[in-house]
Amino acid sequence: MEISAALIAGVLIALLAVFTVIRAVRIVPQARARNVERLGRYHRTLRPGLNFVIPYVDHVHPKIDLREQVVSFPPQPVITEDNLVVEIDTVLYFQVTDPRAAAYEIASYLQAVEQLTVTTLRNVVGSMDLERTLTSRDTINSQLRGVLDDATGKWGLRVNRVEIKAIDPPHTIKEAMEKQMRAERDKRAAILGAEGQRQSQILTAEGDKQAAVLRAEGGRSAEILKAEGQSRAIDQVFQAVHRNDPDPKLLAYQYLSVLPQLAQGPGSTFWVIPSEVTSALHGVSRAFTESLPKSGAIRETSSDELGTRADEDAAHAAEEAAEAVADAAQADATRHITTPDSQPDITPARRNAEPMLPTQPMPRREGS
């Protein structure tokens, strides 16, 4: 009985020794830290690796993570300068640099950081209107980081970054903003369309201007060339006429050949036979008389024979002219155009408007 009691006592002592050894050894992982209190007072901080403590005297606190941590806070209502309530989501990046301060300077550093972020955010955003709040995220982030870094330094924390994840204005404000953005886009589209139309009209006007200038230059060149051609033609005709030295006989023949054309003209209302027709007939008869071929030896004719022959030719030419006049009168009657006999009241302006044939003196017949 005594042996069994001694055995039990030995086993208990062995178990107590093993348990004491286990409590004396503490292994801390990398990037972790544990605070040690001896008899209720902070003694030291256990670093990563193998550490020994005094069992039943030293109290080891839970591990503290020394890595950079990311905390996303729930949306917080914030009032802007223009009295609009917006909800802002923030993300905080921080790291514990002093495990002792993080454990003993603040009861819960996560809760403290969250409340400090909310109050600082309300102070910063409260001095901005909605439009500035939506477009000044970098400014808000830098101001939050500066305030949090100064306040959390004594807690053994270091705030690396503060990011605003979302800014949600009220639903009515969202609708108004969407309408405003749609109006701005429509405005820019209208401005771009007007600019494009203006550029198109400018280019079209410049093209029309250049085309008109080129057409005008082409017309001017054509008119100049045409005038030069007419001038050369007139000059050549004038030189040919003077070079050939036409006599009154040729001019009289041309005069008589033009008379039927004057009678058949579409704009002639009546036809005047001038008194110079007789002179022209004498000239033509003389031309035909002098141009008759002479067979054999040259035969001399008397002045009486020449006069008789000229009279016959003149009478024949007069008959042809009378026939041409009759044809012209018949053509005028067909067109229902009155003659001078049916129109006694012809104004002087009408008479002046009628074409008048050039007059020439009556040539004197030889031998008369």
Over the alpha carbons, how many angstroms does the gyration radius reach? 65 Å
Which fold name corresponds to the CATH topology of the largest domain? Tetrahydropterin Synthase, Chain A
What is the distance, rounded to the nearest whole angstrom, between the alpha carbons of the first and last residues? Answer: 206 Å
Q: Return the average pLDDT rounded to an integer.
A: 76
Contiguous low-pLDDT stretches (5 residues minimum) are 292-303, 335-368
- Specify the CATH class of the largest domain: Alpha Beta
Structural class: alpha+beta
Largest sheet features? 4 strands, antiparallel
Our count of domains comes out at 4
- CATH architecture descriptor name of the largest domain: 2-Layer Sandwich
Q: What portion of residues is helical?
A: 55-70%
Tell me the β content.
15-25%
What's the CATH superfamily of the largest domain, by name? Band 7 domain
- Count up the helices: 10
Give the beta-strand count.
10
The helix/strand order is HEEEEEEEEEHHHHEHHHHH
Shape: rod-shaped
InterPro entries: Band7/mec-2_domain, Band_7, Band_7/SPFH_dom_sf, Band_7/stomatin-like_CS, Stomatin_HflK_fam
Biased composition (Low complexity): 323-332
Biased composition (Basic and acidic residues): 306-319
Region (Disordered): 295-368
Outline:
The chain has 368 residues and is α+β, with helices and mostly antiparallel strands. It is built from 10 helices and 10 strands.
How does the SSE layout of this entry go?
Layout: H1 2-24, E1 25-28, E2 32-38, E3 41-46, E4 49-52, E5 58-60, E6 64-65, E7 68-72, E8 76-79, E9 85-96, H2 99-104, H3 109-125, H4 130-135, H5 137-152, E10 157-168, H6 171-244, H7 248-263, H8 276-290, H9 303-334, H10 348-353
Antiparallel strand pairs: 1-4, 2-3, 2-5, 2-6, 7-9, 8-9, 9-10
